[in-house]
Design a protein that fits this description.
Strand order of the largest sheet of chain B: 5-6-7-3-8
Strand content of chain B: 25-35%
Number of domains of chain A: 1
Oligomer: heterodimer
Largest interface: A-B, 18 and 21 residues
CATH architecture of chain A: Orthogonal Bundle
Largest sheet of chain A: none
Helix content of chain B: 25-40%
CATH topology of chain A: MetI-like fold
Helix content of chain A: over 70%
Order of helices and strands of chain A: HHHHHHHHHH
Number of domains of chain B: 1
Distance between the termini of chain A: 47 Å
CATH superfamily of chain A: MetI-like
Strand content of chain A: under 5%
Largest sheet of chain B: 5 strands, parallel
Shape of chain A: globular
Structural class of chain B: alpha/beta
Radius of gyration of chain B: 16 Å
CATH architecture of chain B: 3-Layer(aba) Sandwich
Number of strands of chain A: 0
Number of helices of chain B: 6
CATH superfamily of chain B: P-loop containing nucleotide triphosphate hydrolases
Shape of chain B: globular
CATH class of chain B: Alpha Beta
Order of helices and strands of chain B: EEEHEEHHHEHEHE
CATH topology of chain B: Rossmann fold
Amino acid sequence: MQVKLKKVPKKILNASLALAFWLGLWLILSKKIGIELLFPSPLSVAVTLREMLTQKEFYSVCLRSFFRITVGYMLGIASGGILGSLISFSEILKSIFKPFLTAVKTTPVVSFIILALIWIERDGVPVFITFLMVMPIAAAGILTGINSADSELLEMADAYKFGFGKKLKYIYLPSAVPSFASACETAIGLGWKAGVAAEVICMSRGTVGYALKNSQVYMETAELFAWTGIIIVISLVLEKLFVSLFELIFKKAVKKGGYFIEHSGK
Amino acid sequence: MNIAVNNLTKKYGDKTVFENFSCMLNFDGILVVRGASGIGKTTLMKMIAGLENYSGKISVPAQKISFMFQEDRLIPFISVLKNVAAVSDVNTAEKYLSALGLQEESDSPPNSLSGGMKRRAALARALAYPSELVILDEPFKGLDKELKQHAVEIIKEESRKRDFIIVTHENLDSKLLESAVFTIKKF
């Protein structure tokens, strides 16, 4: 009798192989080091993670961080979008705000976190830092998109005496949408990482960053690993959530406006 | 129409396209502009339409000028109908698209059209714009004999209401259009 084995999809097989490789490497390293406090084994991290998942507080901690960072992200996207649009059409505003945006992009995030701790309330720091990290990316996305508007189309618009509103509707806005959408997607991961870093440094109670810092203070290395895993998972969930949300908004807006625009995002 | 060009000078960096160029374009209906490639036909048309800076004086007795570029320059983000309606209104746009045989393509994105269809859509836009003067730069590029003849008939019909300047490299076009010819030559 012949037994037919179901073919495992290549993608799943490759992912399983990669997971097995890294788990194996982790296991070998933890065995080699031999001190759980320094480098816990995958099993002890899994046990700690399971314990964490049974606690009610774990979920409120995750939700609090998720909510705060999302607020900062949304504020960053909205203000970056507005600022980017304004500086795209005004040389004076561009010369005023470009150095500010460059400074924000190049200054280490930790400097802003420490400064923000002096300026604002502890719990507001992660929101502010996420906003500050996301805003220049969103502004740059709009700026790039508007600057990339086809000069031949703009000349055609001049020939047919298009007003600013018509140019915005038919040329600038559709040109800016794909790069702004990409910028928004890129900013998700960065905003989340900066937000958690702010929570760690400012010790904002009841947040993922606070829990991470506590694990380090009490030398709960397995917990530290587990929280890091959770941060990665939330980041991925956040990214998927926002990318889906953007695609939905994008498709609805494109359909409503009767546009033909390719989404160049992830 | 009487277009007067006086002491026109146009340079692109070190390259001089026109130097103290003067002419009088006096025509009624259609004027075909010819000249060797690179002599400055398009540049002159753009200056007449006010799309290029220059030194000298050009007087055009028209408030609104339609300009069909050598490239189609259709907005890729909106439908063919919206492209034409953007310079006029939906009814006018539909009228010219239908006259040029593009009614079926009205709701399609410009990028899905063939080269000849795009050219006709750009022509429809130039005709739909409520102008006193229509400048067409190589309007028959990519059109087969039959479509070209059809476009010529529409232009001839329109030329009863307003004036046309047509830039073309084909000698036959002026015969087809039964028009006056202005040739730019370098001396």
